[in-house]
Design goal:
The chain is of the alpha+beta class. The chain has a single domain, classed as Deoxyribonuclease I, Chain A, CATH 3.60.10. 24% of the residues lie in helices and 27% in strands. The protein contains 8 helices and 14 strands. The strands form 3 sheets. A 6-stranded mixed beta sheet has the order 3-4-2-1-14-13. The radius of gyration is 17 Å and the shape is globular. It starts with a strand and ends with a strand.
Amino acid sequence: MPFTLATWNINSVRLRAGLVARLLSEEAPDILCLQECKSPVDKMPLQDFAALGYGHVVARGQKGYNGVAILSKLPITEVAAHDFADLGHARHVAGQLENGVVIHNFYVPAGGDVPDREVNEKFGQKLDYLTQMRDHFHAERPARAILVGDLNIAPREDDVWSHKQLLKIVSHTPIEVEHLGAAQEAGSWVDVTRADIPEGQLYSWWSYRAPDWDAADKGRRLDHVWATGDIAGAAHSSRILRAARGWDQPSDHAPVFATFDL
């Protein structure tokens, strides 16, 4: 059963419901995973998406913050929603397709501005969140699973516009990359995007602060698609829809796509 999946930090699903509808109409992925929905589930415009064929939903919401949702054309059943680091945040939900594949949708904490947990509580929370992800995957080894979302870390040197200049900037510091790598290794996850596109600069996020984000092109690859080794070889056609960053009133993230022949 081949299916195409997309992941997108939408930065308010209610504010940008029209952009979600545009993506669903123009790109028609079978599954769309959203992060930073900033809405309780009962306030999300799910009927709008159901009218476009996405009637299957698993989600966790929160007023004004966080929030994750999986919109699907295919039947999907919720199987987990973990509160890693005990933050009380809606940052994870997992659903299982009829073919047994489990899709994990994550929104890892951003970590604030200062990469020092002694002076920045949010950075410590981010590291703790990643550590608990690691421990969970060690304890419950995933199989036939896909992990997507805004992981808020650009791990490779070519995942940022300047490795040297961002080494001390939250999202690309060595300690964050190390923690993300440990979580990835614990679940034997394969970075599907980079397996498909192994070389070259690749970004999924561009700051709102840039007067001309496109010309400056100071991006980072914060949004990821991973798969367990038993199904990673079935993935192909990875891409980032950079054009969506230029839509009216856009999210600062662009959607990331992959297709799986399963």
